[in-house]
Amino acid sequence: MKRTAEIVLGIIGALGYAFMAAIGGFMLWMQNNRELMEETMTGTGDPTTDLTMDEFDAMIDLMGAGGWVLLASAIGAIVLGIIAMVLLKGNSKPVIAGIIFIATAVIVSFVTTGVGVIAGIFYLVAGIMCLVRKPKTTLEM
C-alpha cells in the first residue's frame, strides 16, 4: 500500500514547523539586537508604547525564552517527522510512524502554547491516517 498522502501531510507539517523555527530564530535575533528594539519601541511616537527600562528588559528576556522554546520544539518536531516518514517509506512500520506523528503534534502544540497547532494538525491527520488505513486483503480461491 502506498502511503503518499501521509508522507505529503508530513512534509507540509514539517514545513509549518520550519516556519515556526524561523519565527523562533527571528525572536532570538531581535533579542540580541537591543538597539534596534529600543529604536522600534521609542521611534513610533505612540504614547501607549512607552515602556520603562524594567518592562523593556522583561520583554527582551521573555522574547529570548520564547524564541528558544519555539526553535527547540520546532527542530525536534521536524526531526521526529522525518523519522516517521522514513518509517512510512515502503509501508514498513505505519503504526509506529502514526504514534510518532500524533505524539509530536500534541506535545509540540502544548509546549508552544498553541503556536504550533496549525503544523500539528497536518501531523495529527497523517498520524490518524497511518493508524486507520489497513492494506487491502485479497481472497484466493
What descriptive keywords fit this protein?
77% helix; single chain; rod-shaped; 141 residues
Set out the fold topology:
Elements: H1 4-32, H2 34-42, H3 53-88, H4 94-111, H5 117-132
The overall pLDDT average reads 86
What is the number of helices?
5
Q: What's the N-to-C terminus distance? A: 22 Å
Work out the number of β strands: 0
Quickly give the structural class: mainly alpha
- How many domain modules? 1
Low-confidence parts lasting 5 or more residues at pLDDT below 50? none
Shape: rod-shaped
The string of secondary-structure elements, in order, is HHHHH
Strand content: under 5%
Query: What is the percent of helical residues?
Result: over 70%
What Rg do the Cα atoms give?
A: 21 Å
Give me the oligomer status. Answer: single chain
Largest sheet: none
Task: Tell me what the structure shows.
By secondary structure, the protein is an all-alpha fold. It has one domain (4-38, 53-132). The protein is 77% helix and 0% strand. The chain is built from five helices and no strands. The chain has helices at residues 4-32, 34-42, 53-88, 94-111, 117-132. Helix 1 (4-32) runs antiparallel to helix 3, helix 1 (4-32) packs antiparallel against helix 5 (117-132) and helix 4 runs antiparallel to helix 5 (117-132). The protein starts with a helix and ends in a 9-residue tail after the last helix. The mean pLDDT is 86. Pfam families: DUF4064. Residues 2-110 form the DUF4064 domain. Keywords: Membrane, Transmembrane, Transmembrane helix. It comes from Planomicrobium okeanokoites (Planococcus okeanokoites). This is DUF4064 domain-containing protein.
